[in-house]
Amino acid sequence: MIGLLGALFVLTLALGQSFTPLADVGRVLLGQEVPGASFTVGQLRLPRAVICILAGLSFGLGGVVFQIMLRNPLASPDIVGVSAGSSAAAVFGIVFLSMDGASVSLFAIVAGLAVAMLIYVLSFNDGITGSRLILIGIGISAMINSFIAYALTRAPAWDLQEAMRWLTGSVNGARLSQAGPLLASLLVFGGLLVMLRRDLETLRMGDDMAAALGVQVGRTRLLVIIGAVGLIAVATATTGPIAFVAFLSGPIAARIVGSNGSIVVPAALVGAALVLLGDYAGQFLLPGRYPVGVVTGALGAPFLIYLIVRANRTGSSL
Amino acid sequence: MIAAARTMTIRRASREGRNVVAVLLLALIVLALSVLSLSVGTRDVGWADVLAGLAGGVDTIGQAAVAVRMPRTLLAMVAGASLGLSGAIMQGVTRNPLADPGILGINNGAALAVVLGIAWFQMSSAASYVWVAILGAGLTAMFVYAIGSVGRGGATPLKLALAGAATSVAFSSLTIAVVLPRNDIAGGVRSWQVGGVGGATFDRIELVLPIMIAGLALALLSARKLNLLALGDDVAAGLGERVAVGRGLASLAAIMLCGAATAICGPIGFVGLVVPHACRLVFGVDHRWLLPCSALAGAALLLLSDVMGRIMARPSELDVGVVTAFIGAPVFVWIVRRQRVRDL
């Protein structure tokens, strides 16, 4: 899978409005000056591809751990309101406080965590049940989304493309300097989640069973939430909430891996591949140029419906 | 035995009496709020000017302001009544405390339908928006209910809410996908993302008013059927009720009401959720009282939200959809915490 992702990465670097020979791509990646290719590959395509991969990894990983923890494929952060919190903070920061760059990211992380904590606290009533958390998340995100819509109508000279970033997610205008925070969050939060993955898999069997097997359920859950929210918030602050990537990665990874083996890491890779492919399709394969979030959103919708029907029919496993 | 029966009649009579008083009180509140809605805004208008403006005068700036505020006040009233009523019906039909045109994604469905109509079928008249919005609301309602009720347990609150949330995410990204390449329509469509009553005109209200009145009549007719449905499908069928017919009629009324409201206001959430719950605290669960009172209380809530939106963001205003979301979400959380939600 890593190989596949690598191949995709190189391909999106080589293909575009014009084709760049693979040899030239390699030389640009090694830092050599290649006339004609340095600009297209190094300045235009490379930052985009890198941001796609990092954001995709974050969304995929953050999404799948939520789904596993709440034992429900529909309980991904984009449906239960975690990404909405970060997105609202980013919009608020840009439109009303005229912030930019790192301060927006920081603000989005803090707000994303705060919203997630709010949802967690509100659904705490003699312990947490997954379904109450999901429902309260849906309610809170409905509120936040109406705020985002309002803030966007308030921004006077707001260019539509830029607005769409905060509604569906886009990697237009990606810069390599944005990769730093994403990479750091993947190392810190992603590392935390990968370390916790065995406990997580145990949580899947049910809280009581997990507790009997020696997992500290409350602590694991809290750490998982912090890790996942951190990942999602940083990625959202950079690219906006790329629709459905967090939601789709887990189920697709589950199909690929099968019933044995952890799907945590594969889901992250699937997320990266989805964003990379979605962005490429949005730029070159469709008539007109669409931001990646619109592509993943349109792809995700039918799959989502299918999953709801299937999950309702069979119970709830991924 | 006789004494017990007598106290029951007395209790019922006193309950009815109390309800009548409460209804009158509600009607008074609606009246007071509409006067407030005429007088409050970027420029506050005094009593004399409000009265003169209502009589049709436009001699002073105040009277002109009243003339502008009249259609929006009327719109807030009828749209609020429609949304409150349609929420009460949906909660009755699905026997689900979280049913609301916003949570179930029905408003988004109506908005998507209108956007598709504008983008692909060159729709431009407000009249066609109304019918397309109702069509979209109806299709979405059926769709969400169908996917939410698959599997064991039928349409549980959790499954319906998830189906609705998922559908509205899907629909809003489809809306964006349709709008994005069309810069010519993007501006007009953006107002479909947050509901408001600011752009009201009497012409547009006139378009939807017949539909709303028909929906209201249908709703009040189905109140008794909703009472029977509340006992459960089996009991209702046992009592000679044709369950499917009752449910179908009531749903049709709900869809007409929320579709018509969405067609002119855009998506306004949470009114249909909050109002029936508040009314149930006062009037109990009898739909013959609950439905008319939800309509009145819905009108009051939307008027109040609109006035608050104008006061809080002076000299500009907050769209009413934002205000209702901030009032409604805490109520939603409260309902969820109170309920014992069955695990999936």
Question: Your description of this structure?
Answer:
The complex is a heterodimer of chains A (318) and B (344). Chain A has 318 residues and is mainly alpha-helical. Chain A is built from 15 helices and no strands. The two termini of chain A are 20 Å apart. The interface between A and B is large, with 52 and 51 residues.
| Integer count of domains of chain A | 1
At CATH level 2, the architecture of chain A is Orthogonal Bundle
* Count of folded domains of chain B: 1
Low-confidence stretches of chain A: none
The CATH topology annotation of chain B reads as: ABC transporter involved in vitamin B12 uptake, BtuC
Rg estimate of chain A, integer Å: 19 Å
User: What average pLDDT do the residues of chain A reach?
Assistant: 79
- Work out the number of β strands of chain A: 0
Please trace the helix and strand order of chain A, writing H or E for each element.
Answer: HHHHHHHHHHHHHHH
Oligomer: heterodimer
Helix-strand layout with pairing:
The complex is a heterodimer of chains A (318) and B (344).
Chain A: H1 2-14, H2 22-29, H3 37-69, H4 77-80, H5 82-95, H6 102-122, H7 130-154, H8 160-167, H9 179-195, H10 197-203, H11 207-212, H12 217-239, H13 245-257, H14 264-285, H15 292-314
Helix pairs in contact in A: 1-3, 1-14, 2-3, 3-9, 3-12, 3-13, 3-14, 5-6, 5-7, 5-12, 6-7, 6-12, 9-12, 13-14, 14-15
Chain B: H1 2-39, H2 47-54, H3 61-94, H4 106-120, H5 126-148, H6 157-179, H7 183-190, H8 202-221, H9 223-229, H10 233-238, H11 243-265, H12 271-283, H13 287-312, H14 320-338
Helix pairs in contact in B: 1-3, 1-13, 2-3, 3-8, 3-11, 3-12, 3-13, 4-5, 4-6, 4-11, 5-6, 5-11, 8-11, 9-11, 12-13, 13-14
How would you summarize what this structure contains?
By secondary structure, chain A is mainly alpha-helical.
